[in-house]
Design goal:
The protein is of the alpha+beta class. It has helices at 6-16, 26-37, 42-52, 56-63, 85-89, 92-103, 145-156, 182-192, 206-214, 220-234, and strands spanning 77-82, 116-121, 133-135, 138-140. Helix 2 runs antiparallel to helix 3 (42-52) and helix 8 (182-192) packs across helix 9 (206-214). It is elongated, with a radius of gyration of 21 Å. Mean pLDDT is 80; it is low at 188-244 and 247-251. The chain binds FE2/S2 (inorganic) cluster.
Length: 251
């Protein structure tokens, strides 16, 4: 049951400063907590409530609404197997039964070593590659029983760690544009921003902070796109999986 680490608190404060209202950063902060522990602990929710000046009940109310946020422990690898119509017609239930047999657990359970959780899910938007599954939201299509076994063996042996990070890690691209350390942000805001008109005193607009630091104006999405493109080049398909992991929506 962990509160957020100091490093995450710093990241959280930078993220909160991006929004006109601190509570708007709630979901990003919940994802940070889930990245830290693999799931969202009660202590983390209380800590987030403190950071956002909310009640723990408000944080829990939001966290419990979303499927991608887990309020109880899950395995290092969350295996989400689709049994919706396209996958059902192409062997989705057979794949689910095979997975249950291979990992010796039922859907909804976690293996004794804490490595794998199986869940049955609705359409994951890769219907053209049915039957499909996702591991920690990295997508695999046309999965056969043999391919599933190979994927699980590779994951268990730690050979796919560069391609599929532990559960909770949505993205390894860190936003840089628009983010400054909290102290710098406050200083930059007092230099250039009419902060007295902002709903939250001391919080400047992201673009203003960038201008103050670099002296140049740049669309806030441009740098993030460049960072994402450069990181995407590093994310290659895992060797030997049933098929290359795919981004959601490619089906
Ligand atoms: S029905 Fe399985 S991905 Fe759409």
């Amino acid at each position: 049951m962990a509160r957020l680490s100091q490093q995450l608190v710093d990241r959280a404060r930078d993220t909160i400063a991006l929004y006109p209202h601190p509570r708007s950063a709630l979901i990003p902060l919940l994802h940070m907590a889930q990245e830290q522990d693999g799931w969202v602990t009660s202590d983390a929710m209380e800590h987030i409530a403190e950071l956002l000046d909310l009640t723990p009940a408000e944080v829990r109310g939001t966290a419990s609404f979303y499927d991608m946020l887990f309020l109880e422990p899950v395995g290092k690898y969350l295996v989400s197997i689709c049994t919706n119509i396209a996958c059902l017609l192409n062997g989705g239930y057979e794949l689910l039964e095979h997975a249950e047999e291979k990992l010796d657990i039922k859907a909804g359970a976690t293996t004794a070593d804490g490595k794998f959780t199986i869940e049955e899910v609705e359409c994951i938007a890769l219907c053209g590659q049915a039957p499909c599954l996702a591991v920690n939201w990295r997508f695999f299509g046309k999965v056969t029983g043999e391919g599933f076994d190979h994927l699980v063996d590779e994951l268990a042996a730690g050979r796919l760690e560069n391609d599929i990070p532990p559960h909770g890690t949505l993205c390894r691209v860190r936003r840089a544009v628009g983010l400054l350390g909290s102290a710098q942000a406050t200083e930059a805001a007092s230099d250039v921003a009419p902060v007295q008109e902002a709903p939250e005193a001391g919080i400047a607009q992201p673009d203003q902070k960038v201008e103050a630091e670099s002296g140049e104006s740049k669309p806030s999405s441009q740098g993030a796109t460049e960072d994402a493109a450069s990181d995407a080049a590093k994310l290659e398909s895992p060797p030997g999986g049933p098929s290359a992991p795919r981004e959601k929506g490619e089906g």
